[in-house]
Amino acid sequence: MNIVSRGANLPAGRQLRSRRGLDRRGSLPPTSASGSETAATTTGSSALLAPSSAPSPARSSPAASAPAEVVTVHFRQEGRSTQARPGEELMEAASRCAADIPTGCLHGSCGVCEVELFRYGPDGQLAGGPVVMRACVARVPRGWARVEVAMMPLDAVWGQDGWDT
């Protein structure tokens, strides 16, 4: 049996790299969170993070200079409202203003946290009927000025006999 040391069969100029820091796809992020490192690619599919000697340029984009979009989220049962960013978890907004939404599984299977969402446009008009969502996996929708959250009666979720039939 021939035992070969790690990296002995690599082409000249190539070396083994650590897998630490790789994301799920097997690639390194282009910069660190602070922006002080840059990605230097090598031949093949791996990349090496090397500290950059040059200061990172200030990043300006239209999104950074424009005011952030916010949605008013109103919880009807508690009579409380909060401001939320589109895409933010609905349960985060609820906890921020101490709105009580009952939970069970916290991943959308049981239905205990089902709520009705009423969406209002910038003109303050209700846009269609309510949408039933499970609050534990729902996110604040984009493009609406105001969202009202109403708890559904548990009979509507679980049915009269404790089963949703």
UniProtKB/TrEMBL annotation:
Q: Which InterPro entries does the annotation name? A: 2Fe-2S_ferredoxin-like_sf (IPR036010), 2Fe-2S_ferredoxin-type (IPR001041), 2Fe2S_fd_BS (IPR006058), Beta-grasp_dom_sf (IPR012675)
Q: Where is this region: Disordered?
A: 1-68
| Amino acid composition bias (Low complexity), ranges on this chain | 27-68
Q: Which UniProt keywords apply?
A: 2Fe-2S, Iron, Iron-sulfur, Metal-binding
Q: Where does the record place the 2Fe-2S ferredoxin-type domain?
A: 69-155
**Does the UniProt entry include the keyword Endoplasmic reticulum?**
no
* One Gene Ontology term of the molecular function aspect: 2 iron, 2 sulfur cluster binding
- The superkingdom listed in its UniProt entry is Eukaryota
* The keyword Metal-binding is annotated on this UniProt entry: yes
Q: Where are the transmembrane segments?
A: none
What this protein needs as a cofactor is: [2Fe-2S] cluster
Q: What is this protein called?
A: 2Fe-2S ferredoxin-type domain-containing protein
